[in-house]
Amino acid sequence: MSTPGTAHLRSADALRAARRHGRRRDTALMTVLIVAAVALCAAGLVFGAKTLALPDVLRALAGETVPGVSFAVVELRLPRTVGALLAGAAFGLGGMLFQTLLRNVLASPDVIGISTGSSAAAVTAISFFGASGLGVSSAAIAGGLLTALLIWALAYRRGLSGLRFVLVGIAVAAALQAVIGYVLTRADIKAAEQATVWMAGSLSRSLWDQLGPTAPALLALLAIALLGARVLPVLRLGDDSAAALGARPQRSRILLILCAVLLVAVATSLTGPISFVAFLAGPIALRLVRRDSALAPASALIGAIIVLAADLVGQHLFPIALPVGVITGAIGAPFLLWLLMRGRTRA
Known about the structure:
Blueprint: H1 4-46, H2 54-61, H3 70-102, H4 109-112, H5 114-129, H6 134-155, H7 162-186, H8 189-199, H9 208-228, H10 232-235, H11 239-244, H12 249-271, H13 277-288, H14 295-316, H15 324-342
């Protein structure tokens, strides 16, 4: 005969077993995602205008001079692959932070205008000031930060509502798109062409001279965001419960959003606005993982996988090479429509 005590013990044992199963499942999932990312990186190094043998690629990466291989791998394909990996992880993690903290799937940087702000600043710097390289990157970062600050100021009303933040962000994004259109019509042909190429979202600028200043910044921001994301399960309980558990919800939320803004702005400064990566990675990760603690690393890995895979598709599956942003846009737009039709916007 079962007693209340034995029933409680069985319930506790079942809970512990479920947690162990969740940990094992998430560990297996993370392993699969890491293997997929590594395989896509290898494919990016092997395939190109000329397909290279994997042993020759590995020898070139080890520092050996391989005629006809070393330059293509080390100077062209490796920085592009590293750029795709870092930018994809930054977009994926930054998007998930926005969606989780504002509790709305539509609160993605490329939907609410953060990426558009970076783009507007970069296009202005290119078209009116002849900026290039570090100048464009700095303008993109500053534009993203200023846009986030503007949206926050307009949306804040005795607290921050996720829905209000999204609506204000969409309005600001529309205004910034008008600014971009105006700048492009006023620029000379050469500057407008350069700005248009940058706006497409491309990895063509991912060379070592561009990665030099941005890669360390992205690595540092990714590490900080992954550490800071540990507080997300507590924040999702609500401010009162989070404060009772010793967290400081308002400060944690502000710091995490600032980190997310910087992740997206720095990534945009490197690749241009690669659309819908930040929007897609979080919801996909949320469907796959079982524990909140695995959501952040899974989102980063999925973002990297999306960019790496989209770049391979754009480079090799069409008669002409397409920018990675075109491929992600073609994938993300139907997903956005599906979410809106289903009415599933709560994160």
